[in-house]
Amino acid sequence: MIFWLAFATLLYEIVLSRIFAYILPYHFIPLAVSLAMLGLGLGACLSIFWRRLEGPDGSAAALAALSIALLAFIAELFVHWGFVLIVASAFPPLLVLGTLMARIYGASARPERTYALDLIGGSVACLLAFRLFDRFGPITILLALACAFGIAAAAVASSRRFRLIGVMAAALSAGAAIAWMAGLVPNLGISPPCGADKPMYEAMRRENGRITDFIWGSAGRADLYEHPVFKNIKWIYNDATNSSYLVHDPDTPARKDFLRGLALNIPFALQQPHRVLIIGSGGGLEIQLAGLAGAAEIDAVEVNPATVALVRRSAEFAGRIYDVPAVNLHIEEGRRFLSSMQRPYDLIQMSLAFTSTAMSGSFTLVEGYLNTVEAYRLYLSRLAPKGLLAVLDDSRERSLRGVLTAVAVFEEKGLSSAQALRRIAVVGNSVDGTGYAYLVIVSPEELTVSMRRRLMALCRKRGFKPLWVPEFSAEEPFISLLSAGREDFSARQPLDFGPRTDDRPYFFYFGKGWISLWQTLRPIALLCLVSLLFALVTARILRTAEKHTLRPAALSALCGVSFMLVESGLLQKLMLATRSPAQVLSLLLFSLLFWCGVGSRLAEFLQRRRRFQLWGAFAAAAAATAAAAIFLDHRALEGVPSEMQRHALVFLFLAPVGLSLGMPFPLLLKQQASRPRVNALLWGINGFASVGGACLALMISFVVGIRMSMLAGAVGYLAAALLSYRSQASARRQEVGSNAVSA
C-alpha cells in the first residue's frame, strides 16, 4: 500500500504546484508547496496519538476522509479563490496522507523495504504526472484520486458502515468526474477570482475582457483573452501572468503596414534576415514579422505546447502561423535548443522570453537561464558575422542588466567597455502600445555606420527614442557607462545591475546590500525557521515518549536538510539538459527517487553481507554529493543532439548520487525497527527538515551560488557521518564496559 500512497502523494503535490501557479501570485508558491511537506510531517505526529486509525476500519475511515477532503478542495476551486481558503482546503489531504504513511512506517517490520517502495512509488508518479496533466488536466486527476481513495476505503473496511461511506465517496467522485468531462460544470478560471493579483485577472477587471479559450499544460495554462474594444488583436497568457500577442492574419496592406511599424519589427527592418531564431515565439507575432521581412528559414522555439495548441485552434483568426513551410517549430527551452544547433543565424530575437515563475521574482522551482553570461556567450557564438541578437523587454532595469551582460561577454574577449558598447544599441518604445518598452540590439562585430544610420532613420520615422546608438545618440545611463566602464558604473549604482551567471542565475533580483537581501529572503527564512521548529518540537515529543532518541532525531533532520540541498541544486544544474522546466522536474525527480530506492535496498544488502555501517552510508552520500557539485554540469550534455540520449545520460549521471543518498535514512530506520513510534516520528522529523532544507538551499544559492548549496549538503552528510560514528563508538565502549563488569 505504501507504493500507491507515495504515488498519490507525489501526484497530488505536482498537481497542486500547477494549480497554485495559475490561480495564486507566484510569490506564494514556495509557501503553498512547502505546506505539502509540513502536512505530511504533521500527519506523522498525528498518527502517534490517533489510536483509532489502527485496524482496517481506521484505515477505511482515513481513506474515506481523504476522498472527501479532495472533493472539498475541488469545490473550493470553483467557489472562491482566496489564498487562505485555497491553501487551507489543500492541506487536509496531505495531513491524512502523512498519517497513513507514518502508520505504515511504524507498523513495518522491514522499514528499509518500506522506504524503498515509498521512493519508487514517488518516482513513478514523477515520471507520469506531467504526461497525465497534459492529457487530462488537474481537475480530472484530482477527481480520479478521490474516486480511487473511496474505492480503497470500501475495499479495506471490515464493517458495513465504513464500506458504505467508501462507496458513497467513490460514487460522488465518479459522478463529479463524469459531469466535469461532459462539460456540465463551468470551466475553471473563466471568471476572474476575487482579489487575485495577476495581470490577466487585473486586465479582466479593468477592461471587462473575457477568456474565450484555454488549455491546461504541464508548462503552464494558456488562456486566450479578448479585449471588448480591440478586435484585431488577442492576448495569450501563460499562467495568467506572462502574455504574448495573437494578431489578426495580416491579409491586407493596411495590416501589414501596421505590423511593420512595431518596435518588434526594427531588427527585421535593419537587415532583412534570411535565417531567424525566435526564442519564446508565443502567439506568433514575430513569426509573422519574419515572414513579412522575407525570412526563408524561421526556427520558432516555444517552451509551452499549450500556447502553440491555442494558436492553432485560433487559425481562423490569426492564420496558420506555425504551419507555414518556412517555420520550424521546436517545443523546448530556447537555450537548450540553441546549444544543439551549429548553423549561424542572421537574427536571434527574444521578446519577454522568460518563464512566469522567474519573472515574478519568487525564485521558485527552476530559475530561467536565458539571460546569464553563459547564455549571451552562446547567442553570440551562434550569430553570423553580421548577425544580430535582439532582446525586447518592458523593464528598464532588466534591459540595462542585459546591456551589462553583453558588455561582460565582450570584455572576456579582451575588449574594453567602450569598445563593447560599439557593438550594442538600445531603443526606447512608448508609441506603439505593445508594452515592449526597450529594445537591446547586440552584434558580434562593431555595428556598421550604415546599420546605425538605418536604425536612426527607423526611430525618426516611427517615433521611437534612440537611447544608445554609437556616435549617433546617447542618453543616461549609457553616457556614464561609456565614461566609467562596466565595473565602476555598476559599483556606483543604487541597484545591482551586474551580470548573472549559471551558478547564480537570479536575473530578476536587483537588490544591493544585506538589508535588501534580507527583505527578499525573509519569507523563505521564516518558513525555514518554522519548519525546523516543528522538527525540534517533534524531536522533543519523541524524546519524552522514548529513551535514547536524540541522536536518531538529529540524524533524521540532517538527512532531510542535506537531501533537499542536493536535490534543489541538481534541479538547477541539470535544467538545460532537458527540454523544459516541467521535464527536468519529471526526469530528475524520477531518476533521483528511483536510484534512492535502489540505494535503500543496496544498503540493506551491504549491511547484511559486509557489515556496512550507518556512518559509512552518510560518508558515501557526502562524497558523492561533493563530487556531483564539483563535476556535474549541464554543459557536459550540450554536444548530445538526441533528446533520448540526453535523458538516458541524465538518468545514468544521477545513479551514483541517488544510490548514495538512498542509503542513510533506511539504515537509520532499521536501527529503530523494534520501536514503531520512533520510526513514525523520525519520518515526520525528516519531512519537516526537508522543508527547511529546500528553503536553505534557495538562500545559500541566492547568496553564494548553486554549487555552494550542494556542497553545503555534502557538509550536512559529513556532519551526520561524524555524529553517527561517535554514537556507534560510544555504544561500543558501553558494550565493552558492560562485558568487563560482567566478567
Largest sheet, strands/sense/barrel: 9 strands, mixed
Count of discrete alpha- or pi-helical segments spanning 4 or more residues = 29
Helical content band: 55-70%
Q: What is the second-level CATH architecture of the largest domain?
A: 3-Layer(aba) Sandwich
User: Tell me, what is the CATH class of the largest domain?
Assistant: Alpha Beta
Strands side by side in the biggest sheet:
7-6-5-8-9-11-10-12-13
Rounded to an integer, what's the Rg over CA atoms?
28 Å
Strand content: 5-15%
Number of domains: 3
Ranges with pLDDT <50 over ≥5 residues? Answer: 355-366
Strands, count: 13
The overall pLDDT, averaged over residues, is 83
| Structural class designation | alpha/beta
Q: CATH H-level name of the largest domain... which superfamily? A: Vaccinia Virus protein VP39
CATH fold-level name of the largest domain: Rossmann fold
User: Ends: how far apart?
Assistant: 49 Å
> Could you say which overall geometry the principal axes of the C-alpha atoms support?
globular
Structural description of this entry:
The protein is α/β, with parallel strands linked by helices and 743 residues long. The protein has 3 domains: 192 residues, Up-down Bundle (Growth Hormone, Chain: A), CATH 1.20.1250; 271 residues, Rossmann fold, CATH 3.40.50.150; 236 residues, Growth Hormone, Chain: A (Up-down Bundle). The protein has 29 helices and 13 strands. It has a 9-stranded mixed β-sheet with strand order 7-6-5-8-9-11-10-12-13, sandwiched between helices. It has a 4-stranded antiparallel β-sheet with strand order 1-2-3-4, with helices on both faces. α3 packs antiparallel against α4. The longest helix is centred in the C-terminal third of the chain and has 37 residues. The chain is globular. The two termini are 49 Å apart.
